[in-house]
Structures are given as C-alpha cells and as structure tokens.
Amino acid sequence: MRYAAGKVVSFAATLFIISLITFTALQVLPGDPALLILGTEGDPEAVEALRNRLGLDDPVPIRYGRWMLGLLQGDMGESLRYNMSASELILRALPISLMLAGAAVGLSLCAALPLGVLCATFRGRSIDLFGLTFAQFGMAIPSFWLGILLIQVFAVRLHLAPPGGYEGITSLVLPAVALALPRAAILTRMVRASMLDVLHQDYVRTARSKGVSLWAVVFKHALRNAGINIFTVAGIHLTQLLAGTIVIEQVFALPGLGQLLLPAVLQRDLPLVQGLVMIGASLILMANLGFDFILAALDPRIRFD
C-alpha cells in the first residue's frame, strides 16, 4: 500500500508541475489570441471586449487558478478556433488515438516477445539471424515513411484497406502497423538481450541438468526474470508511441488528437492546446503508473525499494 500510495502521489505531483509549466509557457508566447481571432485590422474596442471575455487582462496566477478549477471539473475552456468546448473536441478525438496506440502496443508486444525469446533460445541459428535482421531494418525505418509505403501498397495498389480517414476499426490497421514495427524491432533486441543474460544464469543450468524441459525453463523461469528489463523498456517506448500517434494521424488523416493539436498550435488556440497537452501528459503518466505496478507484480522486491 505504501508503494502504491507513493506512486499515486508522484503521479499527482508530476501532473501538477506539468500543468504549471504548460500554462505559464503558453501565456508568454508572442501574439495576442484576440488579434489572431479578429485579425490585425479588427476594431480595437472589439479586440478589448474579446480580451475581457477570454480573461486575458487578468494576472497569470488568477488565470491559472481559474483554468485549474475548470480542469478539475472537466471544463478545459472554449476552443478559439472551433467556438465550442475544448473538452468536447478532445473527447471526440480521444477514442481514436487510444485505439491506435493500444493496437500498436499490442502488435509490438505480440511480435517482439515470441521473436525475442526464440532468438535467444536458438542463438546463432536461422531464426536468430532473421530476428536480428528484422530488428535492424525495423529500427532504421521511420514510422511516417512506413505509413506512406503501406498506403501505396495495401490501399492504392491492392485496395485491401482505406488510404486514410476513419471508417471503422479497419482504418486503424495500417496506422497501427506503421507505429508498431519500429517499436517491435527495438523490443525484439531488448527481449533477446535480456533472455540471453538470464539463460546463462546458474539456476537455469541447474534446472536443465535436473531434466526440466527447455520450454518450461524458458517460459516459467527465464522469461519472468527477464520481464523486469523488458517491461521497463516497453514502458519507455509506450510513451514514445503515444507521441508518435500525432505524426501517424497526420499521414493517415485520422481525426484523433494529432489532427487537433497541429492547427491549434499554429492558430494559438490556447485552451485547446492546454487541454491536449494535459490529456497527453495524463495518458503517459498513467501508462508509466501501470507499468510500475506490473514491475512490482513481477518482482516483489521493487515494492520495498
């Protein structure tokens, strides 16, 4: 309980610091949101009235407190670009980004875990050579370029998947593959290295000498002990994957968080940008929290560090 409580307190403190930095940084950016909305030729009285309506004349601490109070109530303010609730816009786009990230994580782990285990178990054989080659090519291919290639082959030429937009779950197949492949390549090398280290331990040799089958040793003993390093690296790559969805959503024209963020930044839609940053930070921190609990389950000693 102390371990879990400490992690939750750390989660809340980190999120508070992120909110403070995000709000302060966006407030000091050059440019007046009122002028961006009405244009530089807008009536000065109308500009001033809009500034008052947006609360831009209040001191920064007051604006931050008002924003945090609304954030805790689920109100992220009104989007300056869309003239509607930023919370509503984000809630519409969030499921698509979450499904894309979740599918990419699942594909990465499903590909990397068995391939990495096989490479380590049969080191130096053909499956190991295949795994190392896959990892080398996968790490060298950028996700956005792979996405364009998948569109050209499977959507344009073979007509097996939609080239862009969101028409259902099938629209997420190609983007998920484009996101998952580079991460799966890195995780494959990590799984292989961790398993090789564990398979050379004395307790593994002892178990084999007592007649325990190879696969029982690999999956019952070695994989669990190697899982500490594996899931630590997987947690790091998950955060990178959540950020990578922004680029992939642009490539495949998916109406997710990435499609909201870029126009909001370019037009200085502060409420929407702040809401998107906080949602992204919350997702990343929750993913890290989940991986911390997984690691604690794999190795009980972690709970008492």
Residues in helix, %: over 70%
Q: What characteristic shape results from the CA principal axes? A: flat
Give the total of beta strands: 0
Number of domains: 2
Order of secondary-structure elements: HHHHHHHHHHHH
Proportion of beta-strand residues? under 5%
What is the SS-derived class? mainly alpha
By CATH, the architecture of the largest domain is named Orthogonal Bundle
Number of helices: 12
Radius of gyration: 24 Å
In the CATH hierarchy, what is the class of the largest domain? Answer: Mainly Alpha
The residue-averaged pLDDT reads 82
Give the CA-CA distance, first to last residue: 13 Å
Describe the fold and architecture.
With 305 residues, this protein is mainly α. It folds into 2 domains: 2-86, no CATH class; 95-304, MetI-like fold (Orthogonal Bundle), CATH 1.10.3720.10. It contains 12 helices and no strands. The protein starts with a helix and ends in a 7-residue tail after the last helix. The model has no long low-confidence stretch (mean pLDDT 82).
